[in-house]
Amino acid sequence: MNNAQWAKDTFGQADLGDPRRTTRLVKLTETLANEPGKPFVSITQSPADMEGAYRFIRNEHVNADAIAKAGYQVTAEQAAKHTLLLALEDTTAITYSHRSVRDELGHVNQGNNCRGILAHSVLLFAPEQQELVGLIEQSRWTSDISARKETCASTNTL
């Protein structure tokens, strides 16, 4: 399956309150799938596409849980087609250095100046078909930065 079809199948039914938001989500996920690991600035087709991506991300009406729900639903449907699945789990730190969001984030155990969120993800894998089925669950949270400051302050005084 190509990335455009995957993006449409996975997120085309996301309920974001406006079909234009869902269309933007599908376009963004296709773009990201075409260039995994690269920032929007490097992969968007035009300045207008980049601005549209950032407007989408900043839009208070875009609900991350609604996006996740759409993806989980598709994964659950795909999972039903398999008799054996492995649930692969991992927790990762997603760090941000940009000042616009830095103060809203928690510590990620990489020093006092490194801020971000933690994400625990569960992927389903079908070993008999050697196929990644999809993301079925993800918990996201931030650690309390004030607790880190207290810990660091007491550690530094020892």
List keywords for this structure.
7 helices; Serum Albumin, Chain A, Domain 1; 2 domains; 4 strands; alpha+beta; 158 residues; disordered C terminus; 46% helix; 4-stranded antiparallel sheet
Topology:
Layout lengths: L2 H9 L7 H16 L5 H4 L3 H12 L5 H16 L6 E11 L2 H4 L3 E2 L7 E12 L4 E11 L3 H12 L2
Antiparallel strand pairs: 1-3, 2-3, 3-4
Helix pairs in contact: 1-2
CATH class of the largest domain: Mainly Alpha
The span between the termini is: 57 Å
The CATH superfamily of the largest domain bears the name Tn5 transposase, domain 1
Number of DSSP-assigned strands:
4
Rg calc: 18 Å
Predict the CATH topology of the largest domain.
Serum Albumin, Chain A, Domain 1
Largest sheet: 4 strands, antiparallel
Structure, explained:
The protein has 158 residues and is an alpha+beta fold. It has two domains: 1-80, Tn5 transposase, domain 1 (Serum Albumin, Chain A, Domain 1, Orthogonal Bundle); 83-158, no CATH class. It contains seven helices and four strands. The protein has helices at 3-11, 19-34, 40-43, 47-58, 64-79, 99-102, 145-156, and strands at 86-96, 106-107, 115-126, 131-141. Strands 1, 2, 3 and 4 form a four-stranded antiparallel beta sheet that branches. The longest helix has 16 residues, at 19-34. The model is unreliable at 150-158 (pLDDT under 50).
